[in-house]
Give the backbone structure.
Amino acid sequence: MYRYYAMLFEMKAQLLDIFRRRHACHRFDPGRDIPRDDLEFILEAGRLSPSSFGLEQWKFIVLTSPQDKLALQAACFQQPQVGTASCDVVILAKLADMHPDSPYVQRLLIREYPGEQLAGALANYRGFHAATDVAAWSVTQCHIAAANMMTAAAGIGIDSCAIGGFKADEVARLLDLEPGRYAVALVLALGYCTEAAGEKLRLPLSELVEYR
Ligand SMILES: Cc1cc2nc3c(=O)[nH]c(=O)nc-3n(C[C@H](O)[C@H](O)[C@H](O)COP(=O)(O)O)c2cc1C
């Protein structure tokens, strides 16, 4: 029992250390690539993320070539972390696939609501879909995946920067996206930072939390 609590204590310390170490990197070492295995670990953290209705709204496009990264940097207001990253993961939010009549929704909902439950779940989802800003909702789910990927990356010594500053139409053109199929949710630049992390600036819990 003592060993179990000691292990939990150690786990908490390690997790907090990862959350404290992760920071938004503004310039990466352009000559240092992330090993494929580590990249797949980070993508797996994204894949395992929770999502509304379990609909896995994300798709991950990984850009690794220097010319693609530079073109993406131009679409991100020339932010240098995009071009110097080992790779950029463009996270796309599914739009058309979120329609209640799409084969995608049928395929995914049936996993969570098998048999007779499916019709009720679908009716519930249909009402939700009609009343929702689907693009904003889908993008929100992608941000959850992005957060998990950044934490996973920090856990294995890989730096990141979430990039919300992009021109969506330019990114869509660069990736040759079919209109209406996806919204660009976020760019995730990954690599090895060349600058020291700044001070972690956060409000105290006392200002953020209210127990009732
Ligand atoms: C959704 C989102 C979009 C962001 N977009 C940008 C961006 O375009 N450029 C940038 O340099 N940082 C961007 N950031 C990073 C934030 O500025 C950074 O996380 C915040 O200042 C806190 O600093 P820290 O991450 O180093 O703790 C973004 C972060 C999030 C979550």
In short: Residues 23-24, 26, 79, 143, 161-165, 186, 200 surround flavin mononucleotide (CB under 6 Å). The first strand starts at residue 58 and ends at 63.
